[in-house]
Design a protein that fits this description.
This protein is an alpha/beta fold. The protein is 45% helix and 14% strand. It contains ten helices and eight strands.
Length: 273
């Protein structure tokens, strides 16, 4: 059950996914206000939850509304234009939960006050189907109760893990934040390779998607470590072994993914700085 009053700033893909997850976990629509310049038509949840309040600007928020949580779910490119407008809410000491990529806790302290209770979160796009993994970092001013509140909010769209060192967020962003794109690229490559091997395009796509989904389910159930699962599929001298001789060769998939994750982490740090 999700309780408390929430001010959600932004209802794009991630903001919208969070909102849907909260409603599924019992949030009362009257306890949340969404700030969305595009209006109600841009908020999918409005179709089912007529009591949901959507306002175009923070200045339109009623003066007697004192949110327990302010959730920032906007693109980092526009954060500079809007975050400072929420400084007036900090007097009531809400917890500030940010899913804005690349913006450090110090960024929000600069705009909202040094005593602001800030939790920084990095979810990924499987939040749209309730299968996210979200990494959270809490600034020193965040209380134990506020930590739990943020964990419940992010837990509505998937798993939650905490880190104590905010500097790890760059690596988190590179691995799990950008990670779905790596998997989608693998799906593309498997589909296209199947077509080249002679499969009809639609069948090749279904096989690739189902294989990745099934293998992911095995990993999620923690049947065994990935190395063990791989070896279980790879019979000596068999078809999988022939494939592994290519993928695991020097400069193969392992090396490419390492380079990709390190490049993403480097870029994350550059953007944050």
């Amino acid at each position: 059950m999700i309780e408390g009053t929430i001010l959600l700033v932004g209802s794009g893909r991630m903001g919208g996914a969070l909102l849907e997850g909260w409603f599924k976990h019992g949030l009362n629509p009257v306890d949340v206000i969404v700030i969305e310049p595009a209006g109600r038509g841009a908020v999918a949840s409005c179709n089912e939850h007529r009591a949901l309040t959507v306002l175009p600007h923070v200045q339109d928020v009623p003066s007697d509304f004192h949110p327990d949580i302010i959730v920032f779910a906007v693109k980092p490119q526009i954060a500079d234009e809007i975050v400072f407008e929420y400084a007036s809410f900090t007097a009531s000491q809400p917890v500030l939960l940010s899913v804005v990529a690349g913006k450090k806790a110090s960024y929000f302290r600069h705009h909202l006050g040094v005593e602001a209770a800030i939790v920084r979160a990095m979810p990924n796009t499987p939040a749209m189907v309730g299968k996210a993994i979200s990494i959270l970092y809490a600034a020193p001013a965040v209380s134990a109760v506020q930590r739990r509140v943020c964990e419940v909010l992010m837990g509505a769209v998937g798993k939650v893990e905490w880190i104590d060192d905010e500097a790890l967020m760059d690596a988190v962003t590179a691995l799990s934040g950008s990670g779905p794109a790596y998997v989608f690229l693998l799906a593309e490559c498997m589909r296209d390779a199947g077509i080249k091997a002679g499969l009809p395009a639609d069948l090749s796509a279904r096989l690739a998607h189902a294989t990745l989904s099934g293998a992911g389910a095995m990993l999620e159930q923690e049947i065994a470590e990935p190395e063990v699962l791989r070896k279980n599929v790879t019979s000596p001298g068999g078809t999988t072994a022939a494939a592994m001789s290519i993928l695991m060769a020097e400069g193969g998939l392992k090396k490419l993914l390492e380079q990709a994750v390190l490049a993403a982490a480097k870029r994350s740090k550059e953007l944050a700085d």
